[in-house]
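TL;DR need structure tokens for one chain.
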Amino acid sequence: MIVSEKIKFVNERGKRIICVCYHLKGDVFREPVIVIVPDENETESDSIILSHYFVKKGYLVFCYEVEKGEINEYDEEELLNQKDDLDSVLDFIKKQFKVNLFGIVISSTKKEVELALSSITNSVKSKFILNREYYLEKAKNSIIDKRNFVRLVKDIQVKFSFSNEENWNRQLSNVYDATGKNISEGGMVIEVNYTGENSLNLLSLKSIIDLEIDLLPVISQKIKTNARVKWIKKGFSEDVIVFGVEFFGISKENKEKINHYISEELKIQTNKHTGGLFLEKRKAPRKSVNFPARINIDPYNSRNLPQTTYGRVVEISETGLCFSSDVFLPKSLFVNLILDLPYSSVEIQAQVVWSKHSDVYGNYFSGLHFLGAEAKHLKIIRKIIEELKKERKRKFAFISNYRDGSDQFRPHITTKLLPHNLDLKTLKHNVGYAIASYFDVYGKVEGYSVFLLITAEDMLNLPIRAVREKILKAVLFAQNELEVNYIGLGSYTKSFTDGGLWLSLQPEVTANLTHGDSLTSWMAIEGTKEKLGLNFKNMKIAVVGAYGLIGRTISRLLVREEPEKLILVGRNKNKLNQLEEIIRKENKDINSELMFTQEISNVKEADLIFTVTSSPTAILKEEYLKEGVIIYDLAQPINVPPEICNRRPDILRIDGGFVKIPQIDIKTDMGPPKGTIFACFAELILQCLEDKKGKFVGPIELSWVEQVRDWSKKYNFSHADLTCFSFPLTDGHIKNITTKHALREKLGDLAITSD
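>> reply
TL;DR here they are.
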């Protein structure tokens, strides 16, 4: 059910603005938010249809009204006023609801307004423009019937009889009371009770009827018209006939009345207040559960549904629950709900308020609202919720893919660690993912590691849509079946989802998300300084893949370290320019020489190289590497091949991004030595331990890096002992390289030209 709320505020110029927010009943606030700019040519019906279209696509929609004023093509002042109004609305939504991603719907004919949109307030970081005419046409097409008329899905009272022509032929004079559905100006559907004794058995295609339609309370007078039967079918029970009719000879006045009725009913349906979805949070706490239930449906209302449906409850509160089964339950259906609770069986009347198909195994989820639940039943439900609050640990899942073919042969525990209620058939290879391990962290939280059964190279050879579908299924499996609260992304699952941003925009993903690259970035800087004792101020440092999530963060952190020279390498010139703009904006006084380059060969003068590309193969060539260079390889798969290290013992290559986690056993082999994990995995554990809710995806804020850094110190997470291709680096090898760098500081490059 689509509902709306009015929100009024006054902007800085003293202008009163009324916002109307459209959303699905029971929905939660999320990004992106669609904002529809007023258009002087639109009708009220157009605005509602357009809003409904975006809401049904899973978005939250804001329309707004301001002081009336006709926009003149050359009236620059009025255009500035309209831009100011839009800025006010975006700022208000951003501050009140903490969002930064907007879709702005605007008419393509207003070129000046589109131009003004280019300078929308700087506080809005991300926006995209949507063409009003294009989406309005799509919206209308989505709710029109075959005769291209807008339909209203609502039951109305009608009466009909066979026309004079039919009466002349068949001597029929009965008047039938019936229910009308899906009315439009072109026709409607009629549902009528039938018994073998009445004359409805003579109803046939092309039968002509006299129709009387009751449109109270919107239209006071009943509408009378002729109609022709276009199709007939059996109803939901043996004594019901359903048939479609097409109006003919209908007057223009009656058409206008029908369209007015449809428009008014749409407004009535959408203006039912929900009790303040965005102004007042839901009072009834809900908890994830997993116990069986069944639903009994009245045969009269069931239509094609089974009279009893078996399923399970996955979420419950004092006012309703979420029911999962293999049967789709239509909205507004009244059911008799039987809950097989741990303490007793409870029977409650309920109504379906929403339904969706979003289970990776083909199940349906339905939201049921309790109707008149007895006090003793509510007491049992409250007891369950309270016990779940006390006993249930927070859970997380780390989702990654195979880096290369060798990962497929590492041990993965896929059956004995599963919760008892899971169907083991879901873990067949063709599902596309498998549970690698299940473990406990300090007795406070529990975690899973889940692997996509596909390598990085395979992912690059598939269409991005297919890869995203695999990732989404794994995420929903962890969220809905493993019932985790926090989900972390590893390896290419980040790259293919825009650092997790794409996943955060999927309405079915409700778990807290993180890409974990904040801790990875900080460990790269602190790890090299701590483990190697380097002084960055006297070094030339390069970052290969400088504008990616990790590369950009490392680059910004390195500027603060003031190295002698910072070489930032990336293939895309525009992204390099954007990175340069960010760095120079954040740092007014830069004491390092900066080089932004597309040529990877420029790293040959670097003393220290951070590699953070998403290339599936090694990219650093031997001729690019200075004698005695240190390479911190964060790429997965690796960016430096073993052959180079074998031929060049003067090079110190370090496996990057690994964290030592004291007293935690993740119970699977992910590559690093036991007792260490990927930094992105460690960040997920820290977020779950601290119960920090939110979706920390997309670009990284340095303030968040500092927060994660503090958590790592709190739990004594530190950089892992240095390794190269998983083999420990000896103190002698490390000392040999770092000693040369210390000599270089004093004597210059001649200090390491020979051993």
